[in-house]
Amino acid sequence: MKNGPYLTTGQFAKLIGIKKDTLFYYDKVGIFSPEIVETNGYRYYSPFQVEVFNVITTLKELDMPLKEIKDYLDKRSPEALLDLLNHKKEELDHKIKKLQQRQDQVLKKTGDTQEALRVPAGEIILEERETSYLIQTPLKPLHNEKDIVDSMFFHYQQLEQLEVPSSRSPGWMIEKKQTYTEETLMNSSSSLFTRIADPDKANAQLDAGIYLTTYQVQDDYMLEAYNQMMDYAAKHHLSLASYFYEDVLLDGLSVSGIEKYLIKLSIKVENSTKR
């Protein structure tokens, strides 16, 4: 063995926390080899090779195939390293952005579920809200299920183009009527919407203020809920805005069957005429 602070295969594997078989394989495919191989077959690594191995490990964790790693190592240079690192930084930035979006989805879904568990279903309340921002897309005239599917597909396309992930099913925007029947409720559907945090990507917004609100399970009671809201507004001399908003708080992730979805139904109170 030559003089110097060299390590056996076992010692080097232990130092960097891998199996010896990995070192043998990397040497076989030409990615990472011991600095010294003696005539008797003994193999020795330099402690200074740890940094090189760490770079290889990092590239693997960035989903770079071993063949590409080998190609880089075969023609390595300071300039090639800078190009590689800049490229990988862009990939990391993209992955970090995606992870942040996923975290935002988890937090939003957590908030929706917690809200659903603490609210009294069926009770009508006045709720103060801050300004919220929406991606809003038009609904086709709803003659059949295909019209609904087409409208939702278009909505999701817009979200994808804007790189806006969604943690909930799209909400429905419903035109205000004095009274509702099943037919008028269906024909009053205007748009689909998704609430977002970034105002720069929004194409609509809901102003801060007081909102008349109720929570209903999505079954036959939804029609009743609309009429009860209109009756409540008349009884309490409330002037309402032009549209109701249906937010889905509990969907297929937490309940089985669309008839069990929990809907938050709300409409902005423009002013009160009560004296």
TrEMBL record:
Keywords: Coiled coil, DNA-binding. SUPFAM superfamilies: Probable bacterial effector-binding domain, Putative DNA-binding domain. It comes from the Bacteria. Residues 82-109 form a coiled coil. Residues 6-75 form the HTH merR-type domain. One of its GO terms (molecular function) is DNA binding. It holds the Pfam family MerR_1. This is DNA-binding transcriptional regulator, MerR family. It comes from Alkalicoccus daliensis.
